[in-house]
Amino acid sequence: MPAVSASIEKMSTPQTTAESAKPAGDTSFFGHPKMLASLFSVEMWERFSFYGMQGILLYYMYFTAEQGGLSIDQGLAAGLVGAYGGGVYLSTILGAWLADRLFGSEKVLFGSAIMIMAGHVALALLPGIPGLIAGLVLVGIGSGGLKANATALVGSLYGEKDERRDAGFSIFYMGINIGGLIGPLVTGWLQTSYGFHVGFGAAAVGMAIGLVIYSLGRKRLPEEAHRVPNPLPAKDRTKYGLIFLAILIVIGVLLGTGIVNANNLARSMAYAAIGAAVIYLFLIFRSPLVTAVERKRVIAFIPLFIASAGFWALFQQQFTFIAVYSQEKLDRNLFGWEMPAAWVQSINPVFIIIFAGVMAALWTKLGSKQPSSPLKFSAGLFIMGLAFLAFIPLAGEGKTPLLALVGILFMFTLAELFLSPIGLSVSTKLAPQAFHTQMVALFFLSVSLGTTLAGILAGLYNPEDELPYFLGIGGVAVVLAVGLAAASPAIKKLMGGVR
Predict the structure, then answer these.
(1) What is the pTM of this model?
(2) Which of 117, 144, 143, 108 is nearest to 200 (CA)?
């Protein structure tokens, strides 16, 4: 955490506003700034590779060797998938720091894409546990670096009060979900037809395509994309190199001595996300670079952070609990042909692609009359809770009809559209000017915590007694949503005119 501390305390150059970085009234990409198209493309292909890999990852871990898997205990595998997902979002801290202090967002984004491709190649070519570890570390760190910087660059296209902002993030989110739709379809079919490693290879090819397309256009990005907001002085680089080395040594000792191991990795990742978020907030509050208005806005972000973590703890169970549920309890028979279980991961992106544009148009049409961000968060969390409560009538009924799960995943989609793109947007709106990228990383810490919890919670699912699981998780989410809605007037006051 020393690197984060120095980054926050020393960052004195504010982010350039959208008005100075881009001419007012730029509507060259579906009514939005042209740069959105480039970011849309690279994120789409990155999501193709990421969700394509993640669609078959849990099965690869717990399937037997005869099935092509690693024979890891199913509950442990679910926890490890959650911990991995949490690690991806936790690594956004590193990506944000490298962008703000050393390389700028565009270079970090490009380097991260190369790392992601290398990770998928490792999963495809290296057998067993060594290939799994190498692949997940590379993809995890690379995805974290790409996420924070792509999102920050999208946020830089819009002014603080530009009513197109939420709509722009919804369009960007549609690109994410086009990749999320195609990825599991391709890797799921390849996995069932030719094996896991061929599926992982397809993810590597997808990321390579995205990298080539992005490389052809990266020089046409505006200068703002290449700027280092707060360059690290040359005299400090050795010091920070030693700090990062010390962090790696500590991590190595924790893993080597067994203090952190496969059985407690998910909980360790959750503690790390909570600790990082607390330190981030503390250092922002005490920084002289943050104004009184900005400090109140950061306070307003705290309940949204908690709501976001709760939301993702449920939503990310698509890759843990629902992945197992789809393989073992879902009736996937379509006219005599059994659909690959990984294809269930593409149901949510289908709905996102259909409705993201609708929601973007709705927010644009409503303009200043649209609900505030806290109310949108509350609606998303409430619908997410209802989605888990909707499993209750299906409990203990044998095989679940595919249409029933499709209906539940439609509720997942509605919840996601109310919260996820809005979370990306509000993190840039509430960010102090000096900490634009790192505020996005703070939002991703909430995703990290929630994703890790999704793995931990999935380990509690008992197919022999499903009711307590669905009732407990869904009920808690509904209660949290109602509490956030009740607190929204007070939160809006702290937001200082930001919606």
Answers:
(1) 0.79
(2) 117
